[in-house]
Fold this sequence. Notes:
6 strands, elongated, three-stranded mixed sheet, alpha/beta
Amino acid sequence: MIRYLVKIFIKDYENVQDANVRQSYGMLGGAVGIACNIFLFFAKLIAGVMSGAISIMADAFNNLSDAGSSVVTLIGFKMAGKPADKEHPFGHGRMEYLAGLFISTAIILVGWQLGVSSIDKIRHPQELSYNMTSVGILILSILVKLWMASYNRFLGNRIQSATMKATATDSLSDCIATSAVLLSMGIGYFTHWNVDGFAGLIVSLFIFMAGINSMKDTIQPLLGQAPDPKFVQEIEEIVMSHKEIIGIHDMIVHDYGPARVMVSLHAEIPYDMDIMKAHDIIDDIEMDIKKEFHCDITIHMDPVVLDDEATNETKKQVLSIIKSVDEELTMHDFRMTAGPLRTNLIFDVVVPYDCEKNIGEIKREIGEQVAQMDGNFYARVQIDKGYMEHS
């Protein structure tokens, strides 16, 4: 059913890297969400009026808020698809993240309000009416929400959308919430214990926590999270598939919204390679990556000396010093420049975020040990951070 809808309403549905295709996925998910949630709202509203259960009424208005969230999803994907302009040269892709944040906030507010209403119901319980129509509506609601959770998770994974994944989480929490309401009705019917308020409180906790978790997922890309390790690895493989490239470093991924990614990196090439040949190779790599990932990429060429024994031996000694300071440190861009009084050793050191030593301490220790080497050396150390690290 899910794949059938995708095939009908989305042209070129396999090309999920394309911004227009992603927008179509989001619009379809929002439209289906609006239709399903409005249907469930009216169905549960009828069941709530018939039974007098606050938990059912609250669950109904939870579905109404979900319909509103689906409207936000539609608007968010529509605005995210707007092309770049003078005020937003990198496009409007982050609007999708803002839409997800709005949805998460709405979920939290619904959970809070339901909790307040449920506590009031516990303090002032009312007589409930039990009927099979209400039970049937709740069971139907659970089945519909299970399908919606599966549907939105499929779309979210297909286009790597935090907004769609947040909607899937919300749908799953709704299943749990409605199940709690159904259970409370069964308890009340068979034992005559009115646990409607308690069921509503449990429902509110599930909804509230679902909102918190969804908010975490949508805030991370706005703050600037580390990129997907698989994405980084695939780029590295494409670059290193060219035999002329010796190594890469200083890769940075800027996320301006799904399918709107900019990448920069340094590629090491032999220092004696013809500059025009090296330029053509870098151009080919950039075109390959753009074609594969639909992203912008800029590659900086770093010439590396390979056939000078003195440079290679000194580099080996410096690397040993760096590892003695901290085993997790790495080095790149090593160069030697001889002067009348001393020889400068110029290199970059990559420091992990969880390194216990501070930058000043690292530079001081490396500099002191380099100064003790034979050759009157002076270390000029540039500290880099590992932007590609993952926790």
